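In response to reviewer comment 3 from the previous cycle, which asked for concrete evidence that the modeling workflow produces usable outputs, we include below a single protein chain processed end to end. The sequence was submitted unchanged, and the resulting structure tokens are shown without manual editing.
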Amino acid sequence: MPSRQLPYTDKMKYEAMKTAIEVTESLSVHDRAISKTTFDELLSTFSRFEQIYKSREKLKHDNDYKALRNKARMYIEHYLQVTMMAVEREEFPADTLAYYGLKPGSKKLPDLRTDKKLIDFGKFLFEADSKRILEGGKYITNPGIAVVKVWFEKFVSTRKNHQVQVDKYKQTKTFIDNKRLEAKLCIRKVWDEIEEAYSHLSPSLRRKAAIKYGVIYIDNAKERQSKYQPENGTLFTVHDIPEQEPELHNIREQNHSQVKRREHISEKQSNMFS
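The workflow returned the following structure tokens.
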């Protein structure tokens, strides 16, 4: 039988409270499944939690930082590709690639997938290129090394600012954990009242009414909790901000969809015989 499952990520907590507020505000006072006292508490808790959630999302989707990272990587890779093609056309000596730590005749670019690798190689690239020019090497154009350096330095500067914000977020971990717990307890209280308000209905209809308020039901909740116990999303790093375990997310989404389908079928069958 489907069991109720409290939200286990920041995003789910945010959406659960937001849905409960929107549904409640759309109804008249007499039709609401949540008392005024609990609703006021929900509004207050949501307001505080929303600040944390949106700050986290802003860092996670820092478009300026991501765009400059991609731009810096692209310019470095294009610079190396132009050099490789010049060597292939025999316009540059065969040992030119050795300056950049690449094997003669190589067409494989260095791994620049992480910020650290990108920054480390970028610094190495500029030193290596200066050495090559000092030893009589020709300048490379389209892109020129000066343009590559401009985009690289823009990325490094933006990343420093991004890192400062990430560090500030991490330093408030205790405060964030308290707000997460506050949100969890508030959601539990709200959902308890919603289910109590519809306790006179059959289990299937009660779940259907509660789901409209954002209440989540899944199959085998205890089994899933004992296996994963995913209370909160992991605090993010500069490179990635995992929301939850992919396997767990997929399992829960599948179970949630199955519950909805079963309830729909059950309701249709009930209507046929009513």
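Residues 226-253, 269-274 have pLDDT under 50 and may be disordered. We consider this sufficient to address the reviewer's concern, and the full set will be provided in the supplementary archive.
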